[in-house]
Each structure stands twice: as C-alpha cells, then as structure tokens.
Amino acid sequence: MEGSASPHRGERTSYTVIRTPMRLTNYFIPTLKEIPTDAQMPSHQLMMRAGMIRPLSAGIYSLLPLGYRVWKKVMAVIREEMDAIGGMEFHLPALNPIEIWEETGRVEAFGDTMFHLKNRDYVLAPTHEEIMTSIARASIKSYKDMPQIWYQIQTKFRNEPRPKSGVIRGRQFTMKDAYSLDATREGLDESYRKHHEAYCRIYARCGLTFFVVGASSGAMGGSGSEEFMVESDAGEDLCAFNLESGYAANIEVASSKLPALERGADNPAAEKFATPTAKSIDDLVAQHGIAEERCAKSLVYFADEKPYLIFMCGNDQLNEAKLQGALGAANVRPARDEELAGLTGADAGSIGPINLKSSLPQIADLRIAHANGMVSGANENGFHYRNIDLDRDANIGVYHDLRIVAEGEPDPLGGRPLSVKKAIEVGHIFKLGTKYSQAMKANFLDEKGEEHPIIMGSYGIGVERVVACHIEQRHDADGIVWHPSIAPFHVQITSLKIESDIVRDAAEALYAALEAAKVETLFDDRAGVSPGFKFKDADLLGMPLNVIVGEKHLKDGNVEIKVRSTGERRIVPQAEAVQVCLALLDSLRS
RNA sequence: CGGAGCGUAGCGCAGCCCGGUAGCGCACUACCUUGGGGUGGUAGGGGUCGCGGGUUCAAAUCCCGCCGCUCCGACCA
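Above: the input entities. Below: the structure tokens describing the complete assembly.
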C-alpha cells in the first residue's frame, strides 16, 4: 500500500482475532472448598462454590463468568421459544418516570416494593406493563395491527422486604416478560395458549421437572392465570394437586370437594351458655364436648377498610386470597384486637352472629351453608351460643368457598385425595384483559369503527429461578450435574500430571479437536495441582462430560470419558474421543 | 416491620464469660516432594478485630448507639 492513498484512511485495516482460551489457568472460576455460612439452599451453596455468583448486598449478586454463561444459555432458550411463537424482543428502560406508574395506580399498589430515586421523580421498574402499554397506546390504533407479542429479558428491581435463598428472591433479578396485544377475547385465548406451550418447551429444554397450577391473578389483575412450579422444600408457594386426576392449583385458589354440613331436623332456639375458659375451637371441643365441625368460627376482617364478619367451619383456615376475591376488594386485613371489641362487644374467641354490638355485613364458607345446630360466640367474653341456625340467627348475605384446602381432602375433579407440596414459582402467565389498556387509554378501532381497549396478556419467567431450580433438581454430594442444554461448558478436560509431555500433548490435541468440533470445552490445564483436586473441581463444576487425560490410559493410546450424571466411565482411543463425546452429549440431551 | 443469631486475614472458625503479645485450618508466595479422588514438608506474606462513642493505666473482650449479613415470622406483582 506504500505510496497510494488509502481509501480507508483513519480506519483499522487489520484486526486482532481474539480466541478466548477456556483454560483454567486463565479463566476466572473461583471455586470454594467450604460451604459459605450464608448459603442455606443447595443451589445457593453450589453457585457460590462453583464460582458462578458472588453477593454484593442482600439480594443482589454479581454474575461471574461461569454463572453468566449459564444465564445467557437460559436466555437463549427463552429467546428461541419466544421468537418461535412470533414474539419480538424489546429493550426497555429500567428507569421510569413515576407519572407513568401513577396512571395505573400501581405506585400505591406496589408500595414499598418499588424502588424510588431520591433526587428525581423516577422509579426503578419492577415489571413493564405500563411501559409496553404506553408504546401500544401510541402506535396500535387498529384491530389490523394485532395480534402482537412483545417481550424483553431484562433486570427488574423490587425492594423485597426479605431477600432469601440466594438468587431465588433478590432485589435485582432478570426476568423475561412478554405482553400480548389482541383485539378479541378469542385472540387473547390464542396468545395465552401459545405462551403456555412455549413455556412448557422452555422448562423442558432447560431440564426442569415442573408442573402447572391454576393461580390467583393477585394484584396484577385480570382473569385466568397459571403458574409454572418446581417442587422444592425451599418453595414459598403451596400447591394442591392430585396426579391421577390432573388437578393442580396454587393453595390460594385450590378448592376441595369436602361436603357441606347436613342440616339437623331438630332446630331448637339458640341458647346462651357459659364458657369462661374457652378461647378457641379446640377449647370448646375439649371442655364442652362439641363436635369441631359444629363450631362456627367467627372472624372480623377489613376489606378495603370496611369491616366484615366471617364464619368458617371449625378450625378451617380462612384463605385471604379467596376472601379478597369474594368481596371484590383490593386489600383485606384481619381486624386489630382493639377494633374487635368496638365492633362486636367481645374479644377474639367470643365473637358470633347473635347480639352484635354493631351491624356487620356477614359472609360464610360454603361448608357451613345454611347449617343449624351450630356453636358460636355470644359477643360477650366468657359466653357462647349453641343451637345457632345460620339462616335464622345470622344475617349471611352470601356463601363462598373461603377455606384453605388441606392435605388429604378430596380433589374437586374426582374426589381423590389432594397432596399439598411446597414449590418455587418459575413462571406465571396471565390473561390481563383490559386492566392496563383501560387505565392508560390504549384503545383501537374495530371493524365497525368502534373504540375498545386493547386486550392484553402478561407472561413472566424468572431467569435466576430457572438456574437455581435446575441446580436444586440436578446436583449430588459432589456438586452440580448440568443438563447439556444450559451447562456452561459441555466438556471439561482433566489433565493429570500435565507436567508430563505425553499428557500435555494429548490434552492440547484433544482440546483443539473438541473446539474444532464446536464442543464447548473447559480445559483444566493447571500444573502442580493434584489429581484429586482436579477431580473434585470437575465434579463441583458439573460439566456433562469429563475427559480425563492421564498417563495411565495414554500408555495404551486411550483417554477416559466420565459421564457426570451417571458416573459411567468409558475408555476410548484418543482419536475417537471427540466422536464419543458428541454421541454421549446427543444422548444426554434427549 | 416483629423475633433470634452472627460480624476477628480471601474462605471457615477459635479467642470475648474472667480486659493486658491477635490465633488456628484452608487458600496465597517461594522451594522441595507427590502424581488416578481436595499429596507431604520447610520458610514466608497478609488483620483499622463491622462503624462511632463511652468506661479504664489498658478494650477484639465491658457499656451505649448505629450499620451490615443470615435465619424464623409478617409481606411477596
């Protein structure tokens, strides 16, 4: 080029090829031999020990290179499946003006859970319904513009009162959230169905054993919703299900087919009796020989700051989510002790339908619908009434299913016994309807030129929960057992006594061959590290295959391939190692 | 936000009750050794004892306040 004017003056005419060497001598994987005290769950302990994450503050973690590789793989699976149902990926601001959240009333709804900036009226987005809706409002004007599926995979911020379980409940986390926009209810049903199927494929591909339960829509609003759950003792949700009938529901909405009480033919007048030391249902049963189910437990709750008297059967637990739904309230809370006396005339334990100090709207559980012969408090400390006929002596407007179901109760489909298990929510899909489009006036014109709010769905996946649940389900005493789909690397090469030229040459050749075959390989090329140490690290990191290169088998021209999940070991000729790895990985994927 | 516990070297911990030289294991550095399941040895480096105040001749240790982290509970779109 000397002497001629370069057409690319000022630009680089050559560039450096950077080939990241995935060698343990260079790669940053700070493994820990000991379990950090702060980590309780296996997934948390192993992510720390395998050098995937490090804590920065409560519920806030740095992703180290090995961990981030896994995150990116989970996100890649999600992207593929979202794109396959016609989703389009967005990148949205995490920093939001507070005004947009005021449009839907969610500044109040989120309350302290939303992070607010101190020096400007911005909030850190805990989710993105408002932002997506604002984009739709500006641009989706006709039924012809829909359906749309919009999604993003980004960091969300929630001021969790109590972060816990490692990355499972953090203050900052990665979430894929998708929003569907439809012109009709049928369109929403179809968008929802597509997401349901995509989610099943995503979790299956990530190697998770999961189940789907009917769920409450909570403060998100809307009609139908389902959660994708992974069973775990560390789970924060309870699910009731029966594997035979296929019934599965979050405890918040689960129901059972427990029969209602029968009405007795004999129906004498209600009679007051002294119960000086009976403060609970159990006391009444023990001290007065009353059948537990004949007790009408009375509770006072405030729904949107309006008091209600609630009757439950015996020791049945009130399900606050159901109460909220039955009353159509935004918030419910139990009455405080000092409020009880003012409203009823008695303290907790002596409240009932007769002689109430003030008139309260009443609501009762279906199990005691129209029952008679009941015992309940007299609204006077130390006294109860027996022979109460709820139709005659109470003023119950409506009966609703208000109970929390319990293990063993008959399921609502076939009457088979329900199991109740703890589970971690890894995804949640909602038919939002028009809650946000109405509030934000995101309207479109239909074929007739009539204006309607866009019909929306909302669909979330917690990325760190997928990773954590994967480890919860796939680990043993030695470490993680990655499924090839999201393993940070497919193969780890363990070189034993790499100081020996024979081992060094064989391991280097194998590494090059695996890389050439596009097998993601982590090469333990550390010198001066004992065999046991390398084996322990390999098991801890948990790559699906471990190729062991040592003098023992090299004498015969062989290497050893160990399958992490089964412990199976194969001695194969060096020249065949790559092909065997590919075949084994293939079989592990299915 | 209620209850409990913890904060001492990168990690795991002892020392604190009973005030007086800051210690152990692992990790790290150098050398030797070993070489198929966290080798063995020798010699080293590394600490505002979470922060602030108080008591005392003297505080990791006793007292007060604050902060951080973890667990149980409340809460959890």
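Note for the figure: DSSP finds 16 helices and 31 strands in chain A.
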